[in-house]
């Protein structure tokens, strides 16, 4: 089908951003670079869902974006659970290309996307084999930190009253 990067409409990008704000995960995938004898981290955007029509819409938009996504099936572990599918965009170039297109439409995960963009641009600006800069280490720690557990009082104190 070829690279159709930039062919997604604003409406499609906004819909996908809303879906990812609610259901997506923006993180760093940890690995180990054997030749460098140290940990490595690459940007990863993923969503897991059980609804096939919704995932078909996600894939159609990602294909129009030229996202280079990977889809894998997760078999249900319990009899009453449904099988699910994970859609992943991972890597510096793929991740950056995807994030630059979707970030303007994100609301709740915009800051995380901006951190991933800064990290990817920094690593791609020079050899990824070089040691991490202090700023990159800060970004890695910020991106990988555990999210705050659900606490309505802390949420209210931090963000004000929730709007309906």
Shape descriptor: globular
Mean pLDDT: 86
Q: How many domain modules?
A: 1
Derived from helix and strand composition plus strand pairing, the structural class reads alpha+beta
Strand arrangement within the widest β-sheet reads 1-2-4-3
Explain this structure.
This protein has 164 residues and is of the alpha+beta class. The chain has a single domain (10-153), classed as Homing endonucleases (Endonuclease I-creI, Roll), CATH 3.10.28.10. The chain has six helices and four strands. The chain has helices at 10-23, 52-65, 92-102, 110-125, 134-144, 152-159; strands spanning 24-33, 38-49, 70-74, 84-90. The longest helix is centred in the last third of the chain and has 16 residues, at 110-125. The radius of gyration is 17 Å and the shape is globular.
Give the arrangement of secondary structure elements.
Layout: H1 10-23, E1 24-33, E2 38-49, H2 52-65, E3 70-74, E4 84-90, H3 92-102, H4 110-125, H5 134-144, H6 152-159
Antiparallel strand pairs: 1-2, 2-4, 3-4
Helix pairs in contact: 3-4, 4-5
Could you provide a short overview of the structure?
By secondary structure, this protein is α+β, with helices and mostly antiparallel strands. It is 45% helix and 21% strand. It has helices at 10-23, 52-65, 92-102, 110-125, 134-144, 152-159; strands at 24-33, 38-49, 70-74, 84-90.
List the keywords.
single chain; alpha+beta; Endonuclease I-creI; four-stranded antiparallel beta sheet; 6 helices
């Amino acid at each position: 089908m070829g690279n159709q990067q930039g062919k997604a409409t604003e409406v499609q990008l906004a819909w996908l951003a809303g879906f990812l704000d609610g259901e997506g995960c923006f993180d760093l995938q940890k690995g180990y670079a054997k030749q460098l004898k140290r940990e490595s981290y690459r940007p990863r955007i993923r969503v897991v869902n059980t609804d096939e029509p919704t995932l078909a819409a996600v894939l159609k938009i990602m294909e129009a974006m030229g996202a280079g996504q990977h889809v894998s099936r997760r078999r249900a572990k319990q009899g009453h659970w449904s099988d699910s599918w994970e859609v992943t965009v991972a890597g510096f170039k793929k991740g950056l290309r995807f994030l630059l297109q979707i970030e303007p439409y994100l609301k709740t995960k915009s800051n995380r996307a901006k951190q991933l963009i800064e990290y990817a641009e920094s690593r791609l600006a020079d050899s990824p084999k070089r040691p991490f800069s202090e700023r990159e280490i800060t970004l890695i720690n910020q991106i990988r930190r555990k999210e705050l557990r659900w606490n309505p009082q802390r949420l209210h104190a931090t963000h004000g009253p929730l709007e309906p």
